[in-house]
């Protein structure tokens, strides 16, 4: 489903990436796009804090209720996946040709939407969360494989440069 979503958005959404000739300009563009990917994480932190305040637990270090545990787990996993996403996206931006830089905001949107889908499905039940997690993890895995291919096959002479 993820490749179909990315391909459809790439073809049908009417925007292009700005002209980014240098690596530093590409990294700044990636950093700006990644700021939007923090939205689900920050929203999760806010909801986690509110649920912690509204829970009936009197002991702050006691056992958490299911509602509080869901939001805490979501935030923890989202932070870890965002770090992996951001570093892969930064490396990906250095290897993509100019005409494919439109993928950076599309992958950012897919990350944000898939984290929100994971959160909703995790709140419904633990058995439903695989769809949202796979929508987050499989594009991340594809980016990692492309980055490794770019580093070791396309430009091995610039590996440590």
Automatic annotation (TrEMBL):
<dbReference type="GO" id="GO:0005765">
    <property type="term" value="C:lysosomal membrane"/>
</dbReference>
<feature type="transmembrane region" description="Helical">
    <location>
        <begin position="131"/>
        <end position="152"/>
    </location>
</feature>
<feature type="transmembrane region" description="Helical">
    <location>
        <begin position="29"/>
        <end position="53"/>
    </location>
</feature>
<protein>
    <submittedName>
        <fullName>TMM79 protein</fullName>
    </submittedName>
</protein>
<keyword id="KW-0472">Membrane</keyword>
<dbReference type="GO" id="GO:0045055">
    <property type="term" value="P:regulated exocytosis"/>
</dbReference>
<feature type="transmembrane region" description="Helical">
    <location>
        <begin position="103"/>
        <end position="124"/>
    </location>
</feature>
<keyword id="KW-1133">Transmembrane helix</keyword>
<keyword id="KW-0812">Transmembrane</keyword>
<dbReference type="GO" id="GO:0032588">
    <property type="term" value="C:trans-Golgi network membrane"/>
</dbReference>
<feature type="transmembrane region" description="Helical">
    <location>
        <begin position="74"/>
        <end position="97"/>
    </location>
</feature>
């Amino acid at each position: 489903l993820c490749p179909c979503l990315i391909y459809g958005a790439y073809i049908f959404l009417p925007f292009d990436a700005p002209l980014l000739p240098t690596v530093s300009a590409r990294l700044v563009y990636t950093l700006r796009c990644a700021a939007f990917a923090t939205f689900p994480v920050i929203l999760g932190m806010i909801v986690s804090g509110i649920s912690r305040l509204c829970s009936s637990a009197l002991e702050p270090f006691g056992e958490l209720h299911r509602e509080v545990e869901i939001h805490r787990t979501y935030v923890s996993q989202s932070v870890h996946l965002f770090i992996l996403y951001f570093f892969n996206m930064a490396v990906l931006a250095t290897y993509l040709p100019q005409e494919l830089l439109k993928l950076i905001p599309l992958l950012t949107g897919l990350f944000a939407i898939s984290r929100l889908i994971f959160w909703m499905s995790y709140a419904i039940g633990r058995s439903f969360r695989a769809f949202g997690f796979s929508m987050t993890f499989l594009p991340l895995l594809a980016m990692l494989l492309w980055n490794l291919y770019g580093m070791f096959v396309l430009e091995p002479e610039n590996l440590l440069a």
